[in-house]
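Not sure how to ask, but would you mind making up any protein sequence you like and the C-alpha cells describing how it folds?
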Amino acid sequence: MIDVTKITHTPAFVLEYELLKKNLSVIEQLQKELPVSFLFALKGFAMYAVFPELASVATGATASSLNEALLASPYFNEIHAYAPVYQKNEFETIASMATHITFNSVSQLETYRNRSGNAKLGLRINAMYSTVSTAMYDPCSYGSRLGILPKDLPLLPEGVSGLHSHNLCESGAQELANTLASIETHWGHLLGKIEWLNLGGGHLVTREGYDLDLFKKTIRDFHERHPHIKLILEPGAAFVWETGYLVSEILDIVENGGIKTLMLDTSFAAHMPDCLEMPYSPNVVGAQLEENGAYRLGGSSCLAGDWVGTYTFAKKPKIGDRLILCDMMHYTMVKTTMFNGIALPDIGIYHDGEYNVVKTFGFDEYQRRLS
C-alpha cells in the first residue's frame, strides 16, 4: 500500500508499480500456456509512461481513434484499429499504422476497403448475448448501433479475414464461455472462413476469484473445434485492475439534514465520471461502504450530484486528511474533463516506496481546449 505522506500534491492518480507488474505476469503466463493473444486497449488506460512495460507483454494495442493510434504506435508491434465510424480526415493516417482494421458495418467496409493499405480487415458482429445490466454499457442491447446482426451478414465479404465481438464488461470466465457458445450458434456459418476472432474487452482475468481454470478450458476447447482461428482478447481493465488509486484531501465537511459530506479536492463528475455513469462508489482505505454510512464523499464541482457514498470510517475523518480511493486506474484518467475549470489530477507512479510525478496539469491545458 502506498504511503500518502509521500504524495506531494493532491488530487493525484497514483499507479502502484509492483501491482502492475503482478497483473502483467498473469497475462504473460496465460499467453504462454494458451493459444490466445492479449491486446492492450487504450480506451481504458492510456498512461504512456508505462507503455514499455505493457508492450513487453501485450502482443499489440487496440486504438479507437487517430490519437490513440498515434500514442500507441511507437511502443506496440501491432495496432488493431476499431471505431464505430471512422473520421474521414483521419482514416488514411490510421491505416498507415494499423495491422488490423475492423469496421462496424459493411457500409464502412465498402467506403474504406481500398484505402486500408496492408491491414487485415475485420467486421464487428453482435455476439447476441448480453451480460451487462447497465444499458449504457451493453453493446448487445436491443437496437444497438454496435456490430452487425447475423441476418445481415449471410456471407463473409471479400477481403475480410476476421470478426470482432465485444459484449463483456468486467466479466468472468463463464460469461466468456457463454459468449463463444453464442457466437458459434449465431455465427457458425462464417467461422470456417475467418482467420482471427477478436472477443474485445471485459475479460477480467486478473481479478481475485476469476475462474482461470474455466478460462483455460474454454480457450483450449474452442481452439480444438476451430484450430484455424487465432483468438484475440483486448481488455482495457485486466492489465491495470486494482493497480492504482486516486488520492484526495478533505477540504471541508458540510452537513445538511443529518447528512455529512466530506468535501474533497477532486470531482467525481470531472475526474471519475464512471462513478456517476455506472453508477458505483469506490472502495476507500479505512472506510466501509454502508447503506446508512455516516459520510458521503463530495466532489469539488458545482454539479449538485457530484457525490458518492455513504461510508463509515474506522477513524473519524477531519479536514486535512487524505483519502485513498481504490482501483482508480482504468476508465478514469481517460475520461477526465476540466468542467468548472477544475485542474486535472497529477499522474504519478509509486515504486519501491518512492513516489514520482510523471505529469501535472495547469491553466495551459484548460486554455488549449477552448477558444
Summary: The mean pLDDT is 97. The chain has two domains: 4-13+244-328+336-368, 34-240.
